[in-house]
Specification:
This protein is of the alpha+beta class. Helices cover 18% and strands 38% of the residues. The protein folds into two domains: 106 residues, no CATH class; 36 residues, no CATH class.
Length: 152
């Protein structure tokens, strides 16, 4: 992680300070398009920001379901995490040829999308997408009698 002070990161209270997983955290009105080259990758997904008695923390997810579950479960600690938000986001990894380092930036867009709509249905989709034999969330698939079937 780089140690340079970035005015764009320092411009927003909830993005200030050191973040273990990111060199930069920027607010974005519009997310950049997805990209994948040898030296520049941009993935779209969702960022969960949380804070309280712990330092402000950001975690990126490619799918909405695990992001919402993670945010809600963290908030249930109530002692350590007193606030959270889930946002549309992009995670950018690029090689900085001048500094000869990899730079990771989290781009956070819009207003928080948690606690809106039918979260119960999103939580059910998350359960259906979990596989006890895998650490990955399987968007669009459910386990049924040991066979995979598309979620409808």
């Amino acid at each position: 992680m780089s140690t340079d002070v970035c005015p764009e990161c320092d411009n927003h209270m909830w993005m200030r300070g050191h973040h273990a997983n990111y060199d930069h955290i920027h607010a974005a009105e519009v997310l950049p398009p997805a990209k994948h080259t040898d030296s520049h990758i941009i993935r779209h997904g969702y960022a969960v920001g949380m804070g309280g008695s712990i330092p402000q923390t950001w975690v990126f997810f490619e799918n909405l379901e695990p992001a919402l579950v993670f945010g809600r479960a963290g908030r249930m600690s109530s002692h350590d995490i007193r606030s959270y938000g889930v946002y549309e986001a992009a995670r950018e990894n690029r090689f900085d040829a001048r500094g000869r380092v990899d730079v990771t930036t989290l781009l956070v867009a819009g207003k928080s999308i948690d606690r809106e709509g039918d979260e119960a249905e999103i939580f059910r989709r998350w359960v259906r997408g979990c596989d006890p034999e895998s650490a990955y969330y399987e968007s669009g698939w459910a386990r049924s009698s040991g066979k995979r079937s598309a979620i409808r």
